[in-house]
Amino acid sequence: MSRLKLGKKILIITAAGIAFLIGSFFVWSSIHNTGIYIGLPQLENHWDENTRLLVFAPHCDDETIGSAFLIQEVLAARGTVKIVLFTNGEAFTYDSENTANNNLEAKDYISLGYKRQEETKAAMSLLGAKEEDIIFLGYPDGSLKRLWQNNWNEDNPYTSLTLGVPF
Questions:
Q1: How many angstroms separate the CA atoms of 165 and 167, rounded?
Q2: Measuring CA to CA, which residue among 119, 123, 121, 95 is closest to residue 108?
Q3: Buried residues in 108-130 as b, exposed as e (16+ CB within 10 A)
Q4: pTM for this predicted structure
Q5: SS3 call for 53
Q6: Which of 21, 60, 69, 105 could staple 89 via S-S, CB 3.0–4.6 A?
């Protein structure tokens, strides 16, 4: 690797690290109301028992990564939270113990989808959400665009490559 390429990589990594640290500081100061922020709104509790929050997530874990703080705050204020997951994230094969052989069958993907559902239920339980407030739509992971664009009506069903069933 040339010195120029290595230097460029180090510069990019350093810049990304600095940007992350600066962003983290501003978010922290905004959350903790230190008044040290530039253009970031203060996060204030505008929620109460009348607050209703509806969270949409493409697949399991996105609701936690993107909305855990807000979900926890609304539930702590005795508000209502519903979480809707479009897919189970079953095509994320790096999460599967069976990926070493790369010969996954439909039953393996289905099993992985159920595993990810259980992980979501556990994470949401830690935040105070009830299992009945989590809705799994079960669309095939990685296929929502194709379903929307090419397989809109029932005359032309989409067959999932991972699950092996028509949608």
A1: 7
A2: 95
A3: bbbbbbebbbeebbebbeebebe
A4: 0.67
A5: strand
A6: 60
55: helix, coil or strand?
A: strand
Contact yes or no for 99/71 (Cβ under 8 A): no
Which pLDDT tens digit goes with each residue over 65-109?
Answer: 888 888 998 999 999 999 999 888 887 766 555 555 567 788 888
CB 39 within 8 A of CB 68: no
Place of tokens 């810049």: 15
**What is the rounded distance in angstroms from the CA atom of residue 93 to the CA atom of residue 108?**
10
Alpha helices of the chain — where are they, by DSSP H?
A: 3-31, 62-76, 106-127, 144-150
Alpha helices in 77-140 (DSSP H): 106-127
Q: Count the alpha carbons within 13 Å of 140 in the hemisphere toward its beta carbon.
A: 20
